[in-house]
What we know:
Layout: E1 2-3, H1 4-14, E2 19-23, H2 24-33, E3 40-43, H3 50-60, E4 66-71, H4 72-75, H5 80-88, E5 93-100, H6 119-126, E6 130-134, H7 137-148, E7 154-161, H8 174-187
Parallel strand pairs: 1-7, 2-3, 2-4, 4-5, 5-7, 6-7
Amino acid sequence: xxxxxxxxxxxxxxxxxxxxxxxxxxxxxxxxxxxxxxxxxxxxxxxxxxxxxxxxxxxxxxxxxxxxxxxxxxxxxxxxxxxxxxxxxxxxxxxxxxxxxxxxxxxxxxxxxxxxxxxxxxxxxxxxxxxxxxxxxxxxxxxxxxxxxxxxxxxxxxxxxxxxxxxxxxxxxxxxxxxxxxxxxxxxx
Length: 189
């Protein structure tokens, strides 16, 4: 199990110029470590929409890599996203799912069926080009360079544990964040 903040740090180290869409508990960690906030889309009020937003950005920005930071509880509320992403064949999309083995993000209540649902098999069946699972921070850190160099869409399951004291959500309003990302992308064209 990887401390969730360390998983976010590893992704941040390898992100380069990628646009990052994050939500739910993954957003809390990402907000604390990201050094490219001008390329971060924070979904504070629509937790199960990160895959769809990431897909839209990957289609609109085919020359930019798009990383979606999702959580196991939120992806369960939008499993259809796997089919939509898989059918789109977006080569620039990497979908991370933080699998909270500590159950802190759900107030200590285990997610029903957490160990009965194979999200990797679902993603492959929907058309993702590959899936990966990491439970060790060193393996994640070393493996991300290879994962991020492959054509997607790719699913990356990251087994995380969270501190009991959760980090705060970003103070930046969603509209302000979107405007900053839009301006950054416009200036880079």
